[in-house]
Design goal:
120 residues, alpha/beta, Rossmann fold, 2 domains, two-stranded parallel ribbon, two-stranded parallel sheet, 5 helices, 15% strand
Length: 120
Amino acid sequence: MTHVCRPLVALFPGVVMEATILTVTPEQEKAYEAGVRRQFYKAIGSYSVSPKRRHFLRGDPATELPSLARSLKVGMVVMGAVSRTGLKRMFIGHTAEHVLDALSCDVLIVKPPELRAAKS
């Protein structure tokens, strides 16, 4: 299981092509990453996942996931994805799409239960 934690600054892109200046101290960044790490390990805690198969990475998922997949020589990556439209999509981006473009192996995208029940 893998989670890629984006740096805190990367979570606040500029609005409509204008740069947004966000001051984040190293302490804030460290606390944010520690919180995300705790959530990741808590979420997988009830599963029997060997420590060798637990990967917590920092950076851009579109870069880090394909790099890890290549280094582990995996045949398939399974990802959860949330479909967003309109304004939310502009701010949140297309993470799954970018990862798909960068991976050279097969990919299975799994929708969360609340989206499976929704009608298009």
